[in-house]
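Collaborator request, handled under Task 6.
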Amino acid sequence: MYVITVRVLDFLVLIGCLPWSRSRADGLIAYRSSRPKATSKASSVPCQACTEGTTFCTRPKSDLWCQQHCHGNRYGLLCNPTRCTCSGPLPGHGGTVAHHGPGPGGVRLIEQYRYRPFLTDNTTTCIAKYFDGAKIRFQPRSAMERLLLCRWIRRDNWEASTFRVFKEFISHNTAYISFGAWVGPMALYAAHLSHIDIYAFEPDPDAYAALKLNLRLNAKLSKRIRAYHRCVHAKAGSTVLYASSHGDSTSSLLPDSTGVLKANTTMTSVTCIEMDEFIQRYKIRPPYFFKVDVEGFEQVLIPSWYDMLQRLSPQRVVLFISIHQHVVGPFPPEAVDGFRRVFQLFRYVFEVSNGTQTVNVSLHERRVQPGTQFTLCQSCDYVLTPKLPRGTFVDLGLLDENGLPLPVIRRSYLGPPGLTGTTGT
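Structure tokens returned to the collaborator:
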């Protein structure tokens, strides 16, 4: 009703039934001629100086720079088609009135921004739209989570390779098991792809609480997701979780590469389970997709799975591993040898190359043969799979019989604007 009233009044001004300076009694709406300059009852400062919680920003809708240099909360940004300024403090914290300059046609509606506190606090939710159109709701708890979950997923510039690997390998009957689920962006997307149960393990107490909250926000998907506040270890029992800041996705069962605990590092006791026993207890049926992102603890976990993978049969498993040698330091030789043994169980081993605005996400084949030198990357993702991918959502860089690279097979799926590819070799 308010919007309709504003439009009617605006129309009456245009046809001359209302004077230019006529104002509503409550002072919320006023009309000016095209000449007066934009004014503000609050002092304006450059957008670079905006401070979250104390100021709000008005920006042109198409001005990406201003969007990036305001205080970073997508819910605290006001769109002003004429300029980019900040005014403070936020209404609800002693509110102000922002007046705008003339708009198209010489008439500009001036309106008080009645900001509600929930627009900038951590109880506000957002909907992330993934590259394939999937929509998932999140409730970010920090500026970093707002950036990743509310902006960068929508812009397809965070974990683009991960989501495309999921799309490539997860089918409607795939049992997805995640180790290091964080607040749920991967597990929820996997539930969008698979129609059977999803299993998500997260030992960090803060991240697990946020995961449960995000599951409640997506009731349809969360019906198939089983979340566990547990870690996965070579042996069941209790261990220590190291974290400099709980909930920020960097918690690990190993200290950092220096081996010396920082002053702000906290140690939390967590309960761990053994994966083979868990699969047998709950009778989880293949095919399996294991997502391992455990901040360096993969050097212990992956080699311990050799016997389990043999029992499950690698022909029914896809293993997606994130390597974090840059976090915990170089893996010991026995751990690297354990990776080699596990890698040799699979027909194809791919190293994932992240996409950019001009380069597609690609999988590059790596040969792991007995008796040959094997070197793990410092920071990358590996996909271990029994079958050759279709290459629908990723480019494929294969090797010939002599281990030499073949021409890259470009994916036929063009995807969203900015990430385009060509069909054929």
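The cover message to the collaborator said: "The radius of gyration is 27 Å. The mean pLDDT is 74. Please let us know whether this matches your experimental observations."
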